[in-house]
Design brief:
The chain is about 25% helix and about 40% strand. The longest helix has 14 residues.
Length: about 80
């Protein structure tokens, strides 16, 4: 599509924002299940979550991203 960005929905407030302006955060969801034999089975799911600018600032996601980049640089 030329000239029109696809809209994404903010995970927090439900506001529709263009994908180029939205903040992308990767969310990790963990599922723990126990069978009757006592074995622990863990499932991990990663998905991208989109936030509008105001919700990302309020939830301090920008600061989390800065910390993650600093960790990668120090390793």
């Amino acid at each position: 599509m030329r000239g029109k960005e696809p809209l994404v929905t903010c995970e927090n407030c439900g506001r529709k924002t263009p994908r180029s302006k939205a903040v992308v955060f990767e969310k990790v969801i963990r599922f723990d299940t126990e069978t009757h034999t006592g074995d622990d089975v863990k499932f991990f799911e990663r998905r991208k979550v989109y936030y509008c600018i105001s919700c990302a600032k309020h939830a301090k996601i920008f600061e989390k991203k800065k910390e993650m980049l600093e960790r990668k640089k120090s390793i």
